[in-house]
Design a protein that fits this description.
Order of helices and strands: EEHEEEEEEEHEEEHEHEHEEH
Shape: rod-shaped
Bound molecules: guanosine-5'-triphosphate, magnesium ion
CATH class of the largest domain: Mainly Beta
Largest sheet: 6 strands, mixed
Number of helices: 6
Number of domains: 2
Oligomer: single chain
Strand order of the largest sheet: 10-11-9-12-13-14
Radius of gyration: 32 Å
Structural class: alpha/beta
CATH topology of the largest domain: Spo0b-associated Gtp-binding Protein, Chain: A
Length: about 425
């Protein structure tokens, strides 16, 4: 399977549906009154962490995700139906980043986790809502609140308990293949592994996940070789297994190269617990093993384990060591990742112009909607609306007649608005 660890996608939640303008019209019931229902809420954009996925490859082919808009309200006080949500299924360990590729907006670390990332716009009120003692037959309605839209980056950081590190050809993929059911490509040339592989190690009742990532070379942090971008995948692991090819002439130089790259990468990688493995022991003479082990122990100041991924020598001991550390670490801190709070933009305050009018904008710095006038919607503002059924329009004419003849004729020219905005034609 192809591995893709980042993708840019466009998300949009559904607009709210417009409210309806309708009047009750029945035989023998004169001036039946407004009965236009409210519009439905737009669908949300939901992000869900799904088990069994380990790539964002799907998002290379489809990049636009739009939730359905809310349905419009109807006569007889029927409210519009809610728009359907759009659900993005992503692998566990996916982060959602802002367009700047730095700000983490959402972090999905557990299977089944669901976040409403962009909320659908609320539906607008139908004319039944605008009925007041002074305007008993309003033709006003609200067009509904717009959905939110945003370009974001999806970035996958695999969550493995243990990360395999080493120079190309150190035998990382061979180790993964020997200890798990994974079948990574193995060959005696550098950069055989081009993308991370995950495998589950089963040790008795226990299991843990290890990640095999492409080999690092000197200068990886400057982009040499495949660079260090795959190090992100072991950033979240609890322990690193640093494999060193025992057949190399200078094992200490191999060790230092990787340690330097970890330090250059930053984050907490260089401080992570590390098990050092002198690998390919089957191809070494006993005195070579002793000599190289001693040199590495001196350079690292830590115990060095001797193993051979090819023959299985020493492998169980290494797994046991990894498992012990992982278990201790899980007992101390069940969750390695502290997910930052999701940031989402609230809808504009009711009674203000929609951003579509070019008058209100979300200001990221103040965290508020800015601009826009404090005025209500007039039906004149709306070119098209919820006037779906022709006969309901006629009802509106009766309503004007009623207004003019009504006892509160002197109040003509202002409607139920608190701000007293003049009505059209006033
Ligand atoms: N003798 C011996 N050879 C090994 C051992 N482990 C791996 N090899 C050989 O070393 C070569 C590289 O092995 P890989 O497992 O592909 O190494 P890698 O670290 O994954 O390499 P990259 O993916 O390029 O970073 C292959 O030819 C393996 O057969 C071992 O324990 N003993
Ligand atoms: Mg490999």
């Amino acid at each position: 399977m192809k591995f893709l660890d980042q993708a840019k996608v466009f998300l949009k939640s559904g607009d709210g549906g417009p409210g309806a303008v309708a009047f009750r019209r029945e035989k023998y019931i004169e001036f039946g009154g407004p009965d236009g229902g409210d519009g439905g809420r737009g669908g949300d954009v939901v992000i869900e962490a799904a088990d069994g996925l380990n790539t964002l490859i799907d998002y290379r082919y489809k990049q636009h995700f739009k939730a359905q808009r809310g349905h419009h309200g109807m006569g007889s006080n029927r409210n519009g139906a809610r728009g359907e949500d759009v659900v993005l299924r992503v692998p566990v360990g996916t982060q959602i980043l802002d367009e700047d590729q730095e700000t983490v907006l959402c972090d999905l670390t557990e299977a089944g986790q669901r976040r409403v990332f962009l909320r659908g716009g609320d539906g607008g009120h139908g004319n039944a809502h605008f009925k007041t003692p002074t305007n008993r037959a309003p033709r006003k309605f609200h067009p509904g609140w717009p959905g939110q839209e945003q370009w974001v980056w999806l970035r996958l950081k695999l969550i493995a308990d243990a990360g395999l590190l080493g120079l190309p050809n150190a035998g990382k993929s061979t180790f993964l293949a020997a200890t798990t059911a994974a079948k990574p490509k193995i060959a005696d040339y550098p950069f055989t592994t081009l993308a991370p592989n995950l495998g589950v190690v089963r040790a008795g009742d226990e299991e843990f996940v290890i990640a095999d990532i492409p080999g690092l070379i000197e200068g990886a942090h400057e982009g040499h070789g495949l660079g260090d971008r795959f190090l992100g995948h072991v950033e979240r692991s609890r322990i690193l297994l640093h494999l060193i090819d025992g057949t190399a002439d200078d094992v200490v130089a191999s060790y230092r190269t990787i340690r330097n790259e970890l330090a250059a990468y930053g984050g907490n990688l260089a401080d992570k617990l590390e098990v050092i493995g002198l690998n390919k022991a089957d191809a070494l003479l006993d005195e070579e093993i002793d000599e190289k082990k001693a040199a590495l122990e001196e350079a690292s100041g830590a115990e060095v384990m001797v193993l051979s991924g090819a023959t299985g020598q020493g492998v169980q001991k290494v797994l046991y060591r990894l498992l012990t550390v992982i278990k201790e670490s899980k007992a101390e801190e069940p969750e390695v990742i502290h997910a930052p709070a999701t940031r989402s933009i609230p809808r504009p305050p009711v009674g203000q112009k929609l951003p579509d009018d070019g008058e209100m904008r979300w200001d990221d710095e103040t965290g508020e909607w800015v601009g826009g006038e404090d005025e209500d919607f007039e039906e004149d503002d709306l070119e098209e609306g919820a006037l779906e059924e022709g006969e309901e329009l006629e009802g509106g004419e009766e309503d004007e007649a009623l207004d003019e003849d009504g006892p509160e004729g002197e109040e003509d020219g202002s409607d139920d608005d608190t701000d007293g905005t003049p009505r059209h034609g006033a």
